Amino acid sequence: MKKQTQEWTSRRAIVRALAIAAAALGLSLSAGAAIAQAGPAKAPPVKIKFALDWRFEGPSAFFLLPLEKGYFAQEGLDVSIDAGTGSSTTVNRVASGAYDMGFADLGAMIEFIANNPAAGTNRMQAVYMVYEQAPLAIFSLKKSHIDKPSDLVGKTLGSPVFDPTRKLFSLFTKANNIDASRLTWKSMDPTLREAMLVRGDVDAVTGFYFTSLMNLYARGVKDEDISSMQFVDYGVKMYGNAIVANQSFIASNPKAVAAFLRAFTRGAREVLADPDGAIKYVHNRDPLIDDAVENRRLKLAISSAIGTPNVRLNGMGAVDQSRVAEMVKQVAAAFDLKQTPDPAAMFNAGFLPPKAERQVFSK
Fold first, then answer.
1. What is the CATH number assigned to the segment(s) 46-133+240-358?
2. Which 8-state DSSP code applies to residue 38?
3. Residues 6+ apart with CB under 8 A from 348
4. 67, HSE (Cβ side, Cα atoms, 13 Å)
5. Percent of the chain at pLDDT above 90?
6. How many CA atoms lie within 13 A of 11 on its CB side?
7. Residue ranges of the alpha helices (H) in the chain?
8. Above pLDDT 70, what percent of the chain?
């Protein structure tokens, strides 16, 4: 009897062990099947530090909308966006590698590359043109009677020393046969530019069209009291701001650059379709903005710098290489550069989405 009991106990132990082994095998097979079904583990998102050219204002919606709506994340990117203090600073940040990509004036990038020959042309490139027309402009009050370029002779103009419009002003004077020595410049902080014009401390100011105009509105100046001259209307046609990228980042993360531009284009289409609704993404980032002012600033940016006939016909993002070459010559002349960069190295079109995707304006 004792022997039968031992045998029975032994059999139960064997059966139990087999059951445990089978269960373990089943779990292993299930886990393996689940892993196989899920496929290989996803790669971690690529981090991109992005620097704007200026504060969070209306045009920032082009970057903040795709960020908040997750379009960058859906492309496998972990994007952070910081405000800027001017295109020259943004160019330096991207060239140094402190930021991977940024939004800056193409002229400022050309100037940097020319003035830093030790860095060569491999420190950064533009990869997507956003402002197809540089929004360079001169503003005055009607009471000053500055209605045409020659009226500037003998006047005092105000602007920050790093303002792109001021730095390229020699192109305006040359195109309109103005003796630049008969103009006086007064420098100031960007926050004081329009205020000094309103107070009468200067006769005119230079700046981006949609920046200075909206700043004058914010100070209570009415449309009928403002005179403006846009460079494009007086013989100076140049590209404006582009998305730029550090060359080392381009080399090590080419797919990430292309992914960023896809997400940006997707967001741009939505901003252009509904500018009014896009302002909330700027407000979410900076609740202190005046939504009405920034809404109008965004629409002015679209009408004056983005929505040109060429972009509406051929899509956003690309450039005419012959026009880039001409711009390099213009910048070299304006800044008296000792070295002229290779125009072919200024813009890399290899990461642009297909043309059909870049047709961002509704027909």
1. 3.40.190.10
2. H
3. 125, 126, 127, 245, 250
4. 19
5. 80
6. 6
7. 2-38, 61-68, 71-74, 87-96, 106-115, 164-167, 169-175, 193-199, 209-218, 247-252, 254-273, 275-285, 291-301, 309-314, 321-334
8. 87
Q: What is the residue whose two structure tokens read 């795709």?
A: 66
What pLDDT, in 10s, does the model give residues 223-255?
Answer: 999 999 999 999 999 999 999 999 999 999 999
The pair of three-digit structure tokens given for residue 330, joined into one six-digit string: 């213009």
Q: Residue 357's CB: how many other CB atoms inside 10 A?
A: 16
CA distance 229 to 170: 15
Query: 5: which 2 tokens?
Result: 């009991």
Q: Tens digits of per-residue pLDDT, 269-325?
A: 999 999 999 999 999 999 999 999 999 999 999 999 999 999 999 999 999 999 999
What are the φ/ψ torsions at residue 219 (nearest 5 degrees)?
A: -95, 15
Cα dihedral 295, 298, 300, 303, rounded to 10, equals -130
Domain with CATH 3.40.190.10 in the chain: 46-133+240-358, 136-233
Q: Which CATH architecture has domain 136-233?
A: 3-Layer(aba) Sandwich (3.40)
β-pairing verdict for 136-141 and 204-208: antiparallel
Tell which residue, 243, 249, 262, 260, has the closest CA to residue 100.
249
